[in-house]
Amino acid sequence: MRIRALALRIVRQFIRDRRTIALLFLAPLLVLTLMYFVFNGQSVKPDLATIGIPAEWHSKLEQAGAKIEPYSSLPEAEADLRKGKLSAILSTEGNRFSVRLEGSDPSESKSALLLIQQTLQSDIERDLTSSAWSAKLDISYEHGEGRLTSFDSFGPVLVGFFSFFFVFLLAGVAFLREKTTGTLERLMASPIRRFEVVFGYLAGFGVFTILQATLIAWFSIQALGLYMDGSFWLVLLTNLLLSLVALTLGTLLSTFAGSEFQIIQFIPLVIVPQVFFSGLFNLDAMNPWLQKLSYAMPLYYGADALRGIMLRGEDLPDIQIDIYALLAFSIAFIVLNMAALRKQRAF
């Protein structure tokens, strides 16, 4: 009977906690649904720019699974290649083929190169050996010089993700502790204004987020040897802005939580979806309507900026859209934080 009574108490406790019920039953379905759409999307076709390639080769490359973009000048194609709009440039000089790969994504570069080699090789003289065939195909890279590893490719995304994730937890749990211990309630009973409370907490937590963001960026590049082609200060700036978004979001959501466990319950809803849209998985493989969801994810902009800086050596003008987006998220969450604090004070 005592076992039965204890079991019934646990059941009633779960039934009363709707967030726990949602976490237990709905969160796994949400994650599985996202994984279904991510991994069962459309096939990714490499974007190939062609210069001086006969028209019959275009149809053969398209039949092999490539998207062909004819260009009239090499500088124009190289400019788009540097921006990551193309996978490779295929051109000819006499009877020699030249391939210039984008290089920041090793798997995409290998896929594009393999497609080109297989398509060209099928129409080249059959008696050529593989070494002679390699001599007819000049291969070069725009980024990475062909030595980037898979970790170099998705490492910048991980730098942003870990900064975002741990700052989110720090801010949520720490701000919740202020509320549950009564510190925030006593503070709101004083003449202090809401914006002073928000900026005070952000400044206090921000000291540790700055140290964490700096440590993660330095350790990834210097200790782990993550490929770095741009400015370390831009990496640090992006990481700090991403941490600021996580800090403001964590403090905002903590106002709707009553315990540390309820902060954890936000992870499947706030953190996990962003992983799928951060760049760890190829967004081009998703359905177009699903790709648009990435624009509502702060981690998407942070990861895009970090990949651009570290892999392609992009400067501030190249990542300004990502920077503005992160600033907009931060400002929006700060305003929502001040609005959420109204319920802490009796008017």
Residue runs with pLDDT of under 50 for 5 or more positions: 126-135
Q: What is the number of strand segments?
A: 5
Strand content: 5-15%
C-alpha-based Rg, rounded: 26 Å
Helix content: 55-70%
- Following the backbone from N to C, one meets helices and strands in this order, namely HHEHEHEEHHEHHHHHHHHHH
Query: How many domain units?
Result: 2
- Net shape: elongated
Largest beta-sheet details: 5 strands, mixed
The oligomerization state is single chain
Helical stretch tally? 16
Q: Could you tell me the mean pLDDT?
A: 82
- End-to-end span in angstroms? 50 Å
Give a structural overview.
Its main location: membrane. The chain crosses the membrane at residues 21-39, 154-176, 197-221, 233-256, 263-283, 323-341. It is a multi-pass membrane protein. InterPro entries: ABC-2_transporter_component (IPR051449), ABC2_TM (IPR013525), ABC2_TM_bact-type (IPR047817). This is ABC transporter permease. The protein has 347 residues and is of the alpha/beta class. The protein has 2 domains: 47-146, 3-Layer(aba) Sandwich (Rossmann fold); 150-344, no CATH class. It contains 16 helices and 5 strands. The chain has helices spanning 2-16, 18-39, 55-63, 74-82, 106-121, 130-135, 150-180, 183-188, 194-223, 232-254, 260-265, 267-270, 272-276, 288-291, 298-312, 320-340; strands spanning 47-51, 67-70, 88-93, 96-101, 137-141. A 5-stranded mixed β-sheet has the order 2-1-3-4-5, with helices on both faces. Strand 1 (47-51), helix 3 and strand 2 form a beta-alpha-beta unit. Helix 10 (232-254) packs antiparallel against helix 15. It is elongated, with a radius of gyration of 26 Å.
